[in-house]
Amino acid sequence: MVGEENEVIRNIKTRRSVRDYTDKQVSEESINTIIDAGIHAPTGFGSEPWFFVVIQNREMMQRMSDYCKPKLLSQLEDVPSDNVTEFKKMLKKEEFDIFYNAPLLIIVLGSNAGFTTDYDCAMCAQNMMLAAHSMGIGSCWVGTACFIQDNEEFMSELGIPYDYRVIAPIVFGYEGKVRERPPRQEPEVVWIH
């Protein structure tokens, strides 16, 4: 790559999805810093369409995991990818936790009224994960958890307003077993001068 890497570029390039966490809880101050980084993401028309639910209750996260696993399994039934086949095996294991036993789950929700809500909340989520990484805290966007949207009991228990939907469920915590970050493929780029 051309050019010198600065601290921001290094943070982006070294962040990865963490799937093994210690039991150490993330402090409230760190959680607030992570969310604050999220809300500084750009939004279409300055809408700021987000709402956050912070969950540190392992029993609730376990119930959510148990609810979501069979939902995803049924959707992946006919997907013929080797990676998906391995993931389906994991989903079938009773002890498998879709949240990877992380001590913290922050759900980024988006307003149904927003025109650019999905994009805005995705940029918010990326800011949050990059901020966490810069603080030595791992993260992983767990798309499987979006199935809680279909469960009125969870939505009510979590205090989610009726006009919001789950966009980005992200777990955070301190990394346990460190995995190497897989190399990125060279992108295909069309240049038009």
Automatic annotation (TrEMBL):
Residues covered by the Nitroreductase domain: 12-174
Keywords: NAD
Keyword NAD appears in the UniProt entry: yes
Source organism superkingdom: Archaea
Pfam families per UniProt: Nitroreductase (PF00881)
GO CC, one annotated term: cytosol
GO BP: 2,4,6-trinitrotoluene catabolic process
SUPFAM superfamilies membership: FMN-dependent nitroreductase-like (SSF55469)
Single annotated GO MF: oxidoreductase activity, acting on other nitrogenous compounds as donors, with NAD or NADP as acceptor
The protein's name in its UniProt record: Nitroreductase
Organism, as annotated: Methanolobus zinderi
Organism placement in taxonomy: Archaea, Methanobacteriati, Methanobacteriota, Stenosarchaea group, Methanomicrobia
